[in-house]
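Please review the protein record below. Tell me whether the encoded fold seems credible here:
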Amino acid sequence: MNIHEYQAKALLRSYGAPVSDGRAVTRAEDAKNAAGELDGPLWVVKAQIHAGGRGKGKFKEADAGDKGGVRLTKSVAEAADEARRMLGRTLVTHQTGPAGKQVNRIYIEDGSGIETELYLALLVDRASSRISFVCSTEGGMDIEEVAANTPDKILSFTVDPATGYQPFHGRRIAFSLGLKGGQIKQCVNLMGLLYKAFTEKDMEMLEINPLIVTDSGDLKVLDAKVSFDSNALYRQADVAALRDETEEDAKELAASKYDLNYIALDGEIGCMVNGAGLAMATMDIIKLYGAEPANFLDVGGGATKEKVTEAFKIITSDPNVKGILVNIFGGIMRCDVIAEGVVGAVKEVGLKVPLVVRLEGTNVEEGKRIINESGLDVIAADDLRDGAEKIVKAVKG
């Protein structure tokens, strides 16, 4: 689960991290009062969307101006005017794709004098099953280019969970970033509280870009991007309350309510599969036969008829879907349950695209009987290869 920058900063502030004072607004008429509560003399107005690259982003609407999603202003009135220009408009960045995201929130904060921009991140390193620190002297909007072109400028190391964070970790980061004097102590303390926040709040990623050295020589968190482990939200009620459902894909949101593992993709063939490994293999073989999957969808081993029905509805709600492949290998998941769910969903929402069904495993004969006696126009497949070949052929004409 992701949260907005202003929420991330409030969370980090509660742990003692140095962040600028700021106010979030959702209505243009509130922007002037919000800006007036800050000291100035500079105010930064930031679009709040769940995507990076806001500073270099462009708004689709001409009346939003052409200054991107992060704007520096020199008065309360100017800050309020820029907030009004951005609210309700669609911001397109390299992470949103061409569709962009609508800006429903604006964050206005005190400006900061910047001497140096640095990069810092904490994330879960899947290879070592440890928390990893990543830092670079090349902070700012072009960190992706730094990673691609000059990876030697990036330091990355993991923390042994047996010891947890230790001051020497912070000193290693400080020396790598070229910090001096009192900045080293600030870095050691800041890394410690960030590590504490990361572990206590079940974060998956904490990115600070940029972490700055101010013109007074102090460290400050100028931007923050945080994502959490969704599987741990049951014990993080305060984090779950920060969820902004308007920033999430409607289909993925609907799937989460039925405990379905669904990720929307850009292809044309919808997939319903049981088991993450089989789902990945199904997507791979669809690509092998010349098409693109429209989604990753794992209904899991304990799916009910109702969950399968909802899964089918989610797939068919995607206008990009030109065909559907149901690929079930029954183990814990029974083929007859899948068949009943598919039949029920088709009768409820209709079937306007080709449907290929491959069933194998537990109760497979009963599942096939349910499909065959349903009267549906279904293409049967003998195995995964056959299913992929038939659905691609049906979609490609």
